[in-house]
Structures are given as C-alpha cells and as structure tokens.
Amino acid sequence: MHRTRLKAALTAAALAASGLVATATSATAADAELARNGGFEAGLTGWNCTAGSGAAVSSPVHGGVSALKATPAGSDNARCSQTVTVKPDSAYTLSGWVQGGYVYLGASGTGTTDVSTWTPSASTWQKLTTTFRTGPSTTSVTLYTHGWYGTPAYHADDISLVGPGGDPATVPAAPGSLRAGTPGTTSVPLTWNASSGATSYHVYRGGTRVTTVTGTSATVTGLTAATAYSFQVSAANEAGESAKSAAVSVTTATGGGDGGGAELPAHALVGYLHASFANGSGYTRMSDVPDSWDVINLAFGEPTTATSGDIRFSLCPVSECPNVESVAEFKAAIKAKQAAGKKVLISIGGANGQVQLASTAARDAFVTSVSKIIDEYGLDGLDIDFEGHSLSLNTGDTDFRNPTSPVIVNLISAVKTIKARYGSDFVLTMAPETFFVQLGYQFYGSGPWGGQDPRAGAYLPVIHALRDDLTLLHVQDYNSGPIMGLDNQYHSMGGADFHIAMTDMLLAGFPVAGDQSRVFPALRPEQVAIGLPASTQAGNGHTTPAEVNKALNCLTKGTDCGSYRTHGTWPALRGLMTWSINWDRFNQYEFSKNFDAYRWS
C-alpha cells in the first residue's frame, strides 16, 4: 500500500490501441449541423460552463450578434460543453472560431480516440478544426471548449459539428431495481439501475419529487426517525420523463446516528496500524491508539509465498520495535478497543505482500489461515489490501460482471466463505489503488486488442461480486498517476479536486472501458470512505486539512466543489481512511484531529 509507490503503467502500445485513428471525411448530402446554439445567439442555451465561467456577450463576435466569453480561474479551465446525438461508426467534422490565449476545442466520448485542437494565442478570430469517427456503439458525444487555468478570458463563436444526425431522443424506460441501503435516522440512501438514454433521474418520496441527480444513486435527507417512507425514481432526457419505478418502502432508524453496516458510526475514521513492522514512523502500541479511530486495520497479514494462500501474522519483532507489547497485552488491548465500540481487522497484503490465489488449493489455504488469525486475536473482520501483481485479468477476461481469471474468481469465493462463516456482523473492507478501480473507466485488463496492463481495473470484479457483503471501500487516493474522471478530464492527486472526482465515480457508477453496456453500478454512500496519507512522509499525494474539508464539503453538502461537477450530493458518505495511525502520530495527529473537528452538517 503503503510502503512503496505504485509502479503500474499502461504501455504506449496499449494507449495507442485504445482508440481508432480518426480520418477526415468531407460532408455528404446526409450530413447535418448537429451543434445546438453554436453561435450563442440564444445565450448559453444548450451549453454548460463549469463554475459559472461562461457568458454570452455582444462583442467581440465572429458571426451574428453573440459569442461566448469564458473566464478561467486558478482551479477552473472554463470548460463549456454540450452533448449531441450521433450515429455509430460515422465520420464527423468539428470546427469553431476562437479568440484569446490557450483556447481548446474538442470532442469526448467518441468511442474511438477523443480529439482536441488548440491555439496558444489568437489575437483575432481564428478557426479551429478537427475530425473524428465514432465507435461501433456510440450514440452521443460531448463537444467542448475551454481555456487554461488562471489565464485571461477567451471567446468562442460559431461552434459546428457536421456529420450524420443520430436518431431522435426517446423517453427512457423507467429505472429498474430501485433499492435502499441501510437507513439512518434522518436519511435513506437509494440506488437503481441505469436507464438507456437517460440524462437525469428524479427521486420521489410519497409521490413528491425531492431531488434530481445525474447518477444512479441519491441520499434522501430531512426525514424523521422511526418513520416509514415510500420512494420511486424516474428517468428523464430532452424527450421527457419516464414512468416511475416500482416503489421501495423503508423505515428510518430509531436513533443513534445516520449510519449502519456492521455497527459503524455514521461517519467513521479508518486507520492502519503498523502492527508487524515499524516503517520509520515508530511503533504504536494497540493500547495507545487514540479513540478517534473507529476501525483499526492491523498491517499486515502476509503470505508465506505469493501463490501459497497461506497467510501469517505476527507482532513486530523487538529488534525492530523495542517498545512492542507482548501478545497477551496486544490481545487484551484489542478487547478493550472493542468494548469501546471500535472494530479491529486484519489487513491482508500491502505493498510487499503479494497474494495470488491462482489455484483452489491456495483459495482454501487462504480461508483456513485467515480464519485462524481472526480467531486467535478475536478480530471483527478482514481488510483486502491486494497491490502490485496480486490481481490481474487474463487475456479475454473482459466483463467485470462475469470474471474468469482464477486469481479473481478464487478471491471472491474465499471472501464469501469467510464472510458466511462469521455472519452479518463481520466487517469487510477493501483498500485498492486507483489503478485497479477508477482507471477502469478508460482501460480494463489487456483490452480488446491486447497490449494494455492486465491489472488495469482488476479490482472491479471483486468489488462488484462482493458489494452486498462489503462494509467499506476506501480507495487509496495517493501514490497515483493522473486519472480520468467522469468529466473526461485528468485529475491529479494532492488536492480536493482529485478526491472529489475519484469518489464521485464510485458514488455515480461508470461504464467500464467506456462500454455503456457494462456499467459498474454505484456503491451506497455509507459503503465509501476516502483514502489519504496522514502526512507528507506517509505517501505521495498528501492533502492538507483545508483541502480535505473542501472535498468533504463538496461530496456531502454540494459546496466548495471547484471546477468538477459531481453527479449528486451524499451526506451519508461514511468517512475517511488514512495510511496510517503511526504516521498520524508522527505528525502530531493532524489528520485525526481535523476529522474530529469536521462538522458533517
């Protein structure tokens, strides 16, 4: 996790193979102008500009009486966009007139290679043109223009997309499988299946619309404790609104906070305790862990060999940790934490603990050995922290919903067996890196043409298969390269924007490898926590307390969001995870003190 940096990278060949080369094709008689209000004569109708950055102005203009003026900020590139309907496997020409410094024009969601063109300086109106071809199943693309962070305003006018028009939009079908997560005293989390062609969803309580979101999950708040409610959801697009889904009835909790799931607090703090090694931060005895921590993950249980499945755990040796307690003292301290309402788990893996359950024998050894550790120390559950080369997808394993790779299938089976053994109160958490989760939005396994890193997105089938058993997913938002978010922009670690974009993907769901027929469904907000390093020494991507609070404000309250637009607001977001308790102590408990002081409502 956490002792070394992630060293996974997609090959250049994989990146080249991820799209088709666009070819220029002149317009034909069947081609049409598809951009709506490309001259901004109707103001910003049809366009969405980030952070309120855009406005229609009367001067300067290229044609007509209006043009777009968009003003970037330090954390916003003034991106203005619209989504248009197109035909699959067809050629398109995108053009527009721009004025200003660093102006970009592009198209995303093409299903092949997304394209853009730009000018570093245009003192007068300059035409930008690019072409692309849609993928075999692409029915819509997003056109956009943007500037650059902190630069002066730019102007755009007469944006044009020429090519075959797509089929007219039709009213989407009603969403299916509406379901409720664990209700709190004043809130209920809801999720549902996506409806093809939908651009938004309306949530109803007792027949009254209470919220509208663009993703497939929402948390309804402002409810009364111990009260029965009925919810429905409808799908909508430019053609209209669908019928409402079948209703789901939920009774809010009687008290004790907004949250459930293995008796965790509504908002929990999760930390890793260096129990088997020191790692430069110093050894922290279990009895010295502050009460701030609600879930304590013992790092780490590691295999005897990478493929044995035989997991062992022991306390840090005295030679490395002179102040280590005895095993008896350690066990007594665990019981004291549990008596105070804390959960103590065994975390398996870490950066140095490669675990590959490539055989059924390894699977069975994993179940036996992990259960032995849980029983010996009287633990509350299991954390899966597989990194490096523990998980990868075999060639041809392309559907996260039906995995075939043995290391994936055997891990799912093993965890289900362990969970069944200990019952519904068993706590199951996972701590994958972004490479194995959010990168799956772009790349999954070796890809349809081969050549990609087979580990890309490899955690997705595990999370999906175990989502009904999963207590918490806390992806490591650190030691990560730039990752593309649902806005089709790359986001880099270290600030609120990264955590907002990465968490939004989990709470909204996303098409895996861009395939709209294979959408990874949203997780419930109470299943999600944000993973961060506790100090600059703990890992790359340290985030200051002020930026952590901005991320929480955006995701739970809809404020401080910056340039990224989330697909909902989730007051029931479970909380934060950090590597690690030891490094937080080394840093004067800055991370946990900030969490304790944060006001969730």
TrEMBL record:
Highest taxon of source: Bacteria
Stretches assigned to the Fibronectin type-III domain: 174-255
UniProt keyword Hydrolase, yes or no: yes
CDD domains: FN3, GH18_chitinase_D-like
Gene3D superfamilies in UniProt: Galactose-binding domain-like (2.60.120.260), Glycosidases (3.20.20.80), Immunoglobulins (2.60.40.10)
Gene Ontology biological-process annotations: polysaccharide catabolic process
PROSITE patterns cross-referenced by the UniProt entry: FN3, GH18_1, GH18_2
Transmembrane segments: none
UniProt domain GH18: residue ranges: 267-601
A GO term for molecular function: chitin binding
Pfam families from the UniProt entry: CBM_4_9, fn3, Glyco_hydro_18
Enzyme Commission no: 3.2.1.14
UniProt key word Hydrolase: yes
Keywords: Carbohydrate metabolism, Glycosidase, Hydrolase, Polysaccharide degradation, Signal
Signal peptide: 1-29
Family: Belongs to the glycosyl hydrolase 18 family. Chitinase class II subfamily.
Name of the molecule in the record: chitinase
